[in-house]
Fold each of these.
Amino acid sequence: MAIRFLTTILLVLADCGADAMARDVWIQNVTIVSAERASLLAGASVKIHDGRISEISRSPFKGHRNDVVIVDGTGLFLTPGLIDGHVHLGEIPGMLPEQEIAHAEIAKSAREQFPKSYLYFGFTTLVDLNSNPQDIADWNSHPLHPDTFFCGAAMIMDGYPMSFVPKPIRYRLARYFLIEPGDESALPPGIDPAEHTPAAVVARMKRDGAICVKTHYERGFGAARDLRVPKVETIQALVREAHAANLPVLLHANSTDAQAFGIAAGVDVMAHGQWNWNTPNSVTELTPEVTTVLQAVLDAKRGYQPTIQVLYGERDLFDDDFLSDPKLALAVPSGLINWYRSPEGQWYHERLAKITGIAPGAKADVDGKAIARVNHVVEFLAKRAVRLSFGSDTPSDETYANPPGLNGWLEMHRLVDAGVSPAQLFTAATLSNAQIFGLSGEIGTVEVGKQANLLLLSADPTLTLHAFDRIQTIILHGNVIASDALAANRSNAPAHP
């Protein structure tokens, strides 16, 4: 059923800021779906005041209708906004910095659209796993954007990913890198080793406003398979310092040995599923070694963030129909899509084709074995009620096939296809992520006192993913936004009356 607004005009924030003071909102006769509840709450009335949920009852609205925005929720489901716990907001997917400079207008349009694209697909909160205060401030300068937080990236000196940046600039750009004992002599002048111990790095992150710590265990891929990895004692020390500062630690770990390392180091969340098993590539059925590590994840109650869409972000580069997908046009401005089609915009596809030897249109051959492995991993863990954390890793690399917002929607489908139930997925993207990132006092559930970052859906998301196919309405800090106003390649919605 379509939403019927009983005020003169729906409040839509197309041009005003998300933090602008909203009128009170009263959502009537709606069904509340929230992970902390054992069952749905039907026929509810939800009042929003000053951007927060101030009342949940079964009482109809009483008062003067011109004082509030009234939303008829008959036949609709009210849920918390979704939390994408793994994004990278500093880049335009598929565009190198020099290309962004050369195509400034296309890039500007994209950067203005992308915050809206996340909202369009229901993501009212984002966590950037490798950022800094300035980049987050730039992102939050957009007039309308999801609530955005960041992790500091505590990468090992000269390991992944700073190894891909030329010396000596890598030591300036990697604000929170770690120096292990014995490596001090390799530093260029002006870098103080005392500022790069686990204690110093975590303290700097905390001062900068980070809500989490991201570290890495990556031996490499492609031609580079001998990258430095940290000592377990280093990451154990990092975890101790982070926990003392109330910061969770996520580990980039897509292999069996990396996740075994993460268990030994005591990290809180494995960022990525196991798609590298340290076995011949032909092996796709669970091995005893893989099963042992997965059981250790379960026994230790670690969070698990599969990011299956990472692999499809490479596969879709070889799909001739990807750039014509109507859903892509909801997330990405037409100018950027057209640039992706150009020879210049195909640069990453051409690079990957040379590395893999895969011809255009042969998408089924790309990462097929890795996808099979991670699907088996996710199915194993989902059946045993793993503590699932939702994250899309947008963009995972320099591929244009990880579009903001849409990439999260795609990740949801990958997870359900792999064996995660819609109810497990819903909890992962709301309550569990809020708890993992220390945000559960503010968001993640529909409760009195919480921020009114909410979604109105036409179906129960714990039963079907189709609930997210076309979100009816997004509510951000109490501001009611028609989803059509957020889509790329659509005319702007009317301004706030």
Amino acid sequence: MTFIGKYFDGKVPQAELKDVDQQQLSGLKDLPARIGELIEEYGFRAAQGELMAAARAANKYFDTKQPWSTRKSDMADCGTTMNVCVQTLRTLTTVMQPFLPFAAVKAAKMLNLEAPGCFAWQAATEPIAAGSQLGQAEILFKKLDPEAVGESANG
């Protein structure tokens, strides 16, 4: 989100999808249904596992596409990468809401989505249009100090 704010004036860039981009997006299409079904069957741990697997796939996509490099050599591809990342975050925002409600609300605000409507599962994969103004980037999760975690676990 910070990257989009800095290099794309805070607006969702245009996308010219290639195979790798299509693969990332297609992996999201049935994610809400899979997670929803697991939740309905009380498979909360498995549902959370699906969420985390989708987040890891998003990180892998981002690392593979290297927008920090393509920004200098191919701005159109960089824009596509960032568009796909926004679409991915849009879906993750909805499906993480049952597990991380406060983070989901922050993510929705950053995407400039209206809560509670943005958390409707049938809307989870609706794309955010290119040119849409995004909100201000925020840190969703504070990095934990390993020493503080160890201290609280021990005492």
Amino acid sequence: MLGVADTGYGRAILCFDSDDDGDLDILVNNSNGPSRFFLNNLENSNHYIKIKLEQDGSNRDAIGAKISLTAGGVSQLRLVLAGANFESSHPTTQHFGLGSHSNIDSLTITWPDGEQNSYFNLTADQTLLLHKVSERVFDDGFE
């Protein structure tokens, strides 16, 4: 990777958009050495979208959800995971690189309970926060 030069004994890596500019930056935690942060400042005209899911209840970050996206005939799938790396974890905000495509044709969220929501014709280069509200049944104790 251009500009990434770390010869340490890497124990953990985190790829995320630290400066919210649409490209991924890298944090490497080395064993018996300093952590290294690589800020991606390369200029390009590529597009992206970031999706952050939230839901009510104990699984607030919607761990286990599936996000599928199609832009310009190219489909991508992300699973919302946590704790899947050695000594690091995936960010729960999902980053999709879209290349030259400035629109998302379709986006489908399959929530951990299996319920689905679909969205169409979305604009790229933004972060979407999508919140699933659970149905709540209230029992007031009266008949």
